[in-house]
Specification:
binds adenine; 16 helices; 8-stranded parallel β-sheet; 14% strand; TIM Barrel; alpha/beta; 337 residues
Length: 337
């Protein structure tokens, strides 16, 4: 059996598959054990007795129920060392999972006004990225909350100005329903005017119309985008323009965006020529990292060998890496498969 056959023969070893993780929130990589360790270190009270109880609480009705726990978890991140430990642990885990390139969101709004300065937080996060440079390629994506006024997003964009050379793109997340992308047009226009690529969470719990609004904003990629599957004309546009969708199957299952992974739209979209990719979102809370997402979705949807190759190549196409690096990674994926 050749190397590539053993890699893709069921049950596939997706740890060995060279992968990207382009939609992951650093705050969502906070594993329960680390969360408790940091709470102890910083004397922060928690509503759970131990990590097991927190894991038990990770059965979410919907996105809002998840975000309540996610923001509670953020409270334990207090010192520079905490942010370094968090970023370092995620990067080590992703590298061990066969992720060669990751692009993670981190939202400074959550931590502004607390004891630590923005420069302290970013120094820690960028140090972890630098220390892991030889083991994993990594880009930082700034992001803001769509539940806050657009003026807050614009302020955050300004506050991040000293670190623009280390930011690959800007995005937006948070509770989607009732907070359509176009409400943030001023923010996204400002990001583009300053030379950044832009992405937005759309069509996760929100309707296909929100994905259309994202296109109106001229986004470079869409985070999730599931609802587009209900709009054939929108699917055609996404396929023609090759606007990537960073899909997160296990997240969708845990947040009841899909009832069953067998119903996940990823394969249908791939068949329609969309640039869909597989990502982890908030792996510590959804109990699944990139490799777990690949295994679960491949099993549930019966992905073929050529679909797996296409998905891996889509990850490179959808990334914000320079073209020369994209070429190198494409060659490496083809060699590995
Ligand atoms: N922030 C962290 N995870 C998110 C998700 N799945 N959707 C929207 N905002 C988020
Ligand atoms: Zn997300």
């Amino acid at each position: 059996m050749s190397g590539s056959d053993s890699l893709l023969k069921p049950p596939c070893d997706f740890v060995k598959l060279p992968k990207t993780d382009l939609h992951v929130h650093l705050e969502g990589t906070l594993e329960p054990e680390m969360l408790f360790r940091l709470a102890d270190r910083n004397h922060i009270p928690l509503p759970w007795k131990n990590p097991e109880m927190l894991r038990e609480a990770c059965r979410f009705r919907d996105l809002s129920a998840f975000l309540a726990i996610y923001y509670k978890g953020c409270e334990v991140l207090v010192t520079e060392q905490d942010f370094y430990d968090l970023a370092r642990a995620y990067l080590e885990r992703a590298a061990a999972d066969g992720v060669f390139h990751t692009e993670f969101f981190f939202n400074p709004q959550v931590f502004c006004g607390k004891t630590i300065s923005l420069s302290g937080i970013l120094r820690a996060v960028f140090s972890a990225m630098d220390d892991m440079r030889d083991r994993i390629s990594c880009l930082y994506l700034g992001t803001v909350m769509r539940t806050r006024p657009v003026e807050d997003a614009l302020r955050t964009l300004d506050e991040l100005a000293p670190w623009y050379d280390r930011i690959a793109a800007f995005g937006m997340g948070g509770a989607e329903l009732g907070n359509p992308p176009l409400r943030f047009k001023r923010y996204f226009d400002a990001c583009r005017e300053r030379g950044f690529r832009i992405c937005v969470h759309a069509g996760e719990e929100g309707p296909a119309e929100y994905v259309r609004e994202a296109l109106e904003l001229r986004v470079d990629r869409i985070d999730h985008g599931n609802a587009a599957v209900h709009d054939p004309d929108l699917m055609r546009i996404l396929a023609e323009k090759r606007i990537p969708l960073t899909m997160c199957p296990i997240s969708n299952l845990r947040l009841n965006v899909v009832r069953d992974l067998a119903e996940h739209p990823l394969k249908r979209m791939l068949e329609h020529g969309l640039c869909v990719t597989i990502n982890s979102d908030d792996p510590a809370y959804f109990l699944g990292y990139a490799g777990d997402n690949w295994s679960a979705v491949s099993r549930a949807l019966g992905l073929t060998r050529s679909e797996i190759l296409q998905l891996a190549l889509n990850g490179v196409e959808a990334s914000f890496l320079p073209e020369a690096q994209k070429r190198m990674w494409r060659d490496r994926i083809r060699t590995a498969l």
